[in-house]
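Students often ask why we bother encoding 3D structure as a string. The short answer is that it lets us treat folding as translation between two languages. Here is a chain of 346 residues written in the first language.
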Amino acid sequence: MEKQTLTFADQEIANRLASRRHFLKDVDQLIDWKRINKLISKVEIRRTSVAGRDAYSAEVMFRIMLVQAWYKLSDYQMEEQLVYNTMFLWFCHLSMENPVPDHSTICRWRGRFSEKRIYEKLLQEINHQLSKHDIRITEGVIVDATLVESHARPRRKEYIETEPVGDDEIPGQPTFQATVLTIEESKDSEARWLKKGNKSIYGYKGHTAVDKTHGLVQAIEVTPANVYDGHMLMPLVESLELPEETEVLADKGYCSQENEDALQERNLVSRIMKKKKKNQDMPEETKLFNYSVSTQRYRVERSFGGLKKNFGWGRSIYMGLQKTADYLFMGAIAFNLKRSLKILRA
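And here it is in the second language, the structure alphabet:
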């Protein structure tokens, strides 16, 4: 049950933690929880009877999801941590003297957030709050895509026995032979195959825009892996409502006249790397332009590295496009908050 009044045990925890520095205490101060509550209150199911009300608020459950993202905890692990980890209890506004949410409760609330499409709005709200600390898009955005493997693994090999034709046994050869048959099937029917280099990946793409200065995630579009990167440039740009003259940086995969014209119509500065024309040498000016863009694109690669290593963007733990998208958004929210604290401390 969510903490309503401060008990002696809760006061003792607060006293013990008061003099200690901790990442969760800094995040708690950074976030404007009143604005968050206003946004996520629609997730709570309103009932007239006290017996039918939820024991936990949407804010408490969002705090739990943040802790899970930062510490890579499953629903079962989170339930266990809330039993004895006093810092987690404090951050999640839970009391020592009341039951904590179990794994099924956490899972159910995650589903509610997904049904209301809350995660994308939370990312936008967190970025809006960070802008008040001068962490905002000032110079431009970098657009790129990264592959996210599906939780399902569709390819497997089966060994089957085939009976030879004819009645006579062939000397030195067994009656039955083992044949390798590759089976293609997946429980994740919305994912798709894409071959990158020598590796084939079954999953999704996280099309992402990060700010040019800090590499914080500003917008995400999630698609099956086989969707062409260039088609997702403008959906990302349009979702950000960028001021005129803002630079948009991207690699050659986004180079098309359609994208150039769309950016020009919105008075945005195209910094999309150029492709070499067929049977022609690339002009020196174009080479220098591409080089200048490539030297700044490392920020999006660095962000992808952090998201994959620490926030699960390498492989989804859920199946389906929507659940994978929610997972990536939650990872981006946690990434932005943690990265922002480092920026503010610098």
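Translate back mentally: The domain at 132-152+189-345 is CATH 3.30.420.10 (Nucleotidyltransferase; domain 5). Keep this in mind for the problem set.
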